[in-house]
Amino acid sequence: MRTERVLTFAVCGFANLGSLGVAFGVLSIMAPSRTTDLANIGFSALIAGCVANYLTACTVGEHYHGTIIRARNFRSLT
Fold it and tell me: Do you know which Pfam families this protein is assigned to (predicted)?
């Protein structure tokens, strides 16, 4: 269960080529004069997205204790 949660956060983020293409397309329409600047930072943005996804996955892995709090049991904990 812990592995599933960590992998979900590690894989399902914005650090993929499709998201980079969408962001590049939208930003190049909004600022056509800055297209070369966007192309220059594209790979760095992809790496930063990977790092952010993996840090989130690490945080989930550290804070997951194997218990799931259900809504009906939440009142008894407070």
Answer: Nucleos_tra2_C
